[in-house]
Amino acid sequence: MSQDDENNAYWSANVRLIMINLAIWALVSFGFGIVLRPLLSGISVGGTDLGFWFAQQGSILVFLALIFFYAWRMNKLDQEHGVDEE
Description:
Keywords: Membrane, Transmembrane, Transmembrane helix. By secondary structure, this protein is mostly helical. The chain has helices at 3-35, 37-40, 50-81; strands at 44-45, 48-49. Helix 1 (3-35) runs antiparallel to helix 3 (50-81).
């Protein structure tokens, strides 16, 4: 495989990972916190409804989890493509 093909494969995997993370974050923050909030209002979490919880805390916690997942997955991706920091 040529260097250009390897660079394109690395960049493609990186962009795919970013798009997946952004889609999850959008679903949780916009979808669960705003659009689907009326459907989630009957489910109680910590004394409040689930839609309100996602809007106030859930989307932030999911965002933090996505940051750690992205860092972990990028380290593995760097190792797979030989561009990791030692």
